[in-house]
């Protein structure tokens, strides 16, 4: 392997919801690739330590509104600090995480007249939403795809197809799945369910519109009315927490549905072992945001949790319908309800789906092999 030093540009390092970014950087360290973080704000340092971080502090920006101005005269201080880090470190490659960070880095490198190898990772809103509201952002990304020093990476074929629809050069796009943290891969644990007992359901995600939790709550209400005993726990946080709690109260779901709030990511593998089923009721929002991969769903599969997911976006690449779980139509609580009843009345499916999930997901989202794919991308830019 070619010795290399990667400058990992992450605007906020490391957000609670961006475990996959932190895990990737640490995985590269394990493979002998030295990384240094360039960020505008360091958060969660106690839970996600990293020895080499440069903080180019500055006023907060809004990607949708300020993207075009991020490196104009009003932002020169921050740009100068970033440029100073790049010049001092002389990294072999810069890896910008998320498209908006990539656009800012592309603009900076152009201004500095630096032809430095650049990897840009895309994850969702940076493809589905931002291009609709910022034409300059879209132009920067499309033009950069013609640059021999730039490559793009998406975590799903679904998101790759969205980039292609924007006009991005197909030859510059790599699809690399997000890897599952090995802590979730416990092959010794055996899951089973006895028909007639209370089904314990888990979901993990932000309390935001795109996650579709209102439909899971509605499905829980339907199950209660039909006489099926379920316990639904949702781990997460977000702007819709108040609305979800009001819906729980309105439908008298206390004791059936519980919002568990924030939970340490390290604790989740063991927590998952106490559940029978995982449900991800994500939706496509009016803005165009949708689930482009489903990290929590992958973690559930690797943990041996059968998964019911909306038939949208990248989720259909993660779950094998009828093998490791089932699909349901988005925004259809009746369909969620029917799929859960089917599993409760065919209790052998829990053990069957669980075993399949562990076998398939642990191979498909294997951290070691996916790490090798990233090494190949980095090495290809330097060859």
Strand % is 15-25%
What is the assigned CATH homologous superfamily of the largest domain? Glycogen Phosphorylase B
CATH class of the largest domain: Alpha Beta
| Poorly predicted ranges | 60-77
Shape: elongated
Question: Total strand count, please?
Answer: 15
How many DSSP helices? 16
CATH fold title of the largest domain? Rossmann fold
Keywords: Transferase
Pfam family, one: Glyco_transf_4
GO molecular function: glycosyltransferase activity
Domain Glycosyltransferase subfamily 4-like N-terminal: 18-182
Describe this structure in words.
Residues 197-358 form the Glycosyl transferase family domain. This is Glycosyl transferase group 1. It comes from Chlorobium phaeobacteroides (strain BS1). By secondary structure, this protein is of the alpha/beta class. Helix content is 41%, strand content 17%. The chain is built from 16 helices and 15 strands. The chain has helices at residues 19-30, 63-66, 76-89, 99-112, 125-128, 130-133, 135-144, 157-166, 213-225, 241-250, 268-272, 295-302, 315-318, 333-345, 348-364, 367-382; strands at residues 5-9, 12-13, 34-39, 41-42, 53-55, 93-97, 118-121, 150-154, 173-175, 199-204, 230-235, 257-261, 277-280, 307-310, 325-328. Helix 4 (99-112) packs across helix 7 and helix 9 crosses helix 14.
């Amino acid at each position: 392997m070619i010795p290399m030093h990667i400058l990992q540009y992450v605007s906020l390092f490391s957000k609670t919801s961006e475990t996959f970014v932190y895990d990737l950087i640490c995985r590269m360290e394990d493979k002998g690739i030295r990384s240094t973080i360039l960020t505008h704000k360091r958060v969660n340092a106690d839970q996600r330590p990293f020895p080499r971080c440069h903080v180019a502090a500055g006023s907060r920006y809004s990607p949708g509104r300020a993207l075009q101005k991020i490196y104009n005269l009003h932002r020169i201080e921050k740009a100068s600090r970033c440029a100073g880090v790049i010049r001092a470190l002389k990294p072999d490659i810069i890896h910008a995480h998320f498209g908006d960070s990539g656009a800012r880095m592309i603009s900076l490198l152009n201004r500095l007249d630096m032809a430095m190898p650049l990897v840009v990772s895309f994850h969702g809103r940076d493809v589905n939403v931002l291009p609709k509201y910022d034409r300059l952002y879209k132009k920067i990304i499309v033009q950069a795809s013609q640059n021999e020093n730039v490559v793009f990476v998406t975590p799903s074929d679904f998101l790759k197809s969205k980039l292609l629809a924007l006009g991005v050069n197909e030859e510059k796009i790599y699809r690399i799945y997000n890897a599952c943290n090995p802590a979730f891969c416990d092959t010794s644990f055996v899951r089973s369910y006895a028909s007639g007992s209370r089904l314990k359901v888990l979901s993990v995600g932000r309390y935001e519109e795109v996650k579709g939790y209102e439909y899971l709550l509605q499905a829980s209400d339907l199950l209660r009315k039909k006489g099926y005993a379920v316990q639904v726990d949702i781990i997460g946080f977000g702007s819709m927490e108040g609305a979800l709690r009001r819906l729980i109260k309105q439908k008298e779901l206390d004791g059936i549905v519980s919002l568990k709030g924030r939970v340490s990511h390290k604790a989740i593998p063991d927590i998952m072992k106490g559940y029978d089923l995982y449900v991800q009721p994500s939706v496509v929002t009016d803005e165009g945001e949708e689930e482009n991969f489903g990290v929590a769903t992958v973690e559930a599969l690797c943990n041996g949790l059968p998964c019911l997911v909306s038939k949208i976006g990248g989720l259909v690449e993660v779950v094998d319908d009828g093998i490791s779980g089932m699909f349901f139509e988005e925004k259809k609580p009746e369909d969620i309800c029917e799929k859960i009843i089917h599993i409760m009345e065919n209790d052998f499916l829990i053990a069957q789906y669980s075993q399949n999930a562990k076998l398939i997901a642990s191979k498909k989202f294997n951290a070691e092999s996916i790490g090798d794919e990233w090494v190949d991308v980095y090495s290809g830019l330097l060859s």
